[in-house]
């Protein structure tokens, strides 16, 4: 009877131990699933944070580009304003010179116009035909 009792005791003790091990294993699995969920949440938050940072960086870069473009346009307008006045002065001087030359040509035409017309009439009406050397030979 002792052997039966000790054997039953061993089976009960062993069964309780297995039950405790199974319970611990199940608890470990549940803890692992919970840890996986936590990890997925952390990864998702990190992705969202990264995406937001990329959007912020892109909009900041666009703003800097726009500011730089505006600055360069202002510099160009200032440069153009400073240097275009010189072109306007040069253009006005060139117009004056052209007007003076045109006036000189008109005066020369008035002074020598009659003589030029007389020379043109004389040359076109006073034709002296000359045979070419090939025809003479």
Which keywords apply here?
137 residues; mainly alpha; V-ATPase_G; coiled coil; ATP hydrolysis activity; hydrogen ion transport
Verbal overview:
This protein is mainly α and 137 residues long. It has one domain. 93% of the residues lie in helices and 0% in strands. The protein has two helices and no strands. The model has no long low-confidence stretch (mean pLDDT 83).
Characterize this entry briefly.
The protein is an all-alpha fold and about 140 residues long.
| Unreliable sequence segments | none
- SSE string, helices as H and strands as E: HH
Any idea how many domains? 1
Instruction: Specify the helix fraction band.
Output: over 70%
- The count of helical stretches stands at 2
Approximate shape: rod-shaped
Q: Mean of the pLDDT scores? A: 83
Main β sheet profile: none
Q: Briefly note the structural class of the backbone.
A: mainly alpha
Rounded to an integer in angstroms, the radius of gyration calculated over CA atoms is 54 Å
**How far do the termini sit from each other?**
165 Å
**DSSP summary, beta strand count:** 0
Strand content: under 5%
């Amino acid at each position: 009877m002792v052997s039966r009792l000790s054997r039953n005791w061993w089976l009960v003790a062993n069964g309780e131990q297995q039950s405790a091990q199974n319970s611990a294993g199940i608890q470990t699995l549940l803890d692992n699933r919970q840890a996986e969920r936590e990890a997925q949440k952390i990864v998702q938050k990190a992705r969202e944070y990264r995406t937001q940072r990329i959007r912020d960086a892109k909009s900041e870069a666009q703003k800097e580009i726009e500011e730089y473009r505006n600055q360069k346009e202002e510099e160009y307008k200032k440069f153009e304003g400073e240097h275009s006045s010189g072109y306007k002065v040069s253009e006005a001087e060139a117009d004056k010179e052209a007007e003076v030359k045109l006036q000189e040509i008109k005066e020369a035409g008035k002074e020598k116009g009659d003589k030029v017309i007389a020379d043109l009439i004389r040359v076109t009406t006073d034709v002296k035909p000359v045979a070419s050397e090939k025809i003479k030979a």
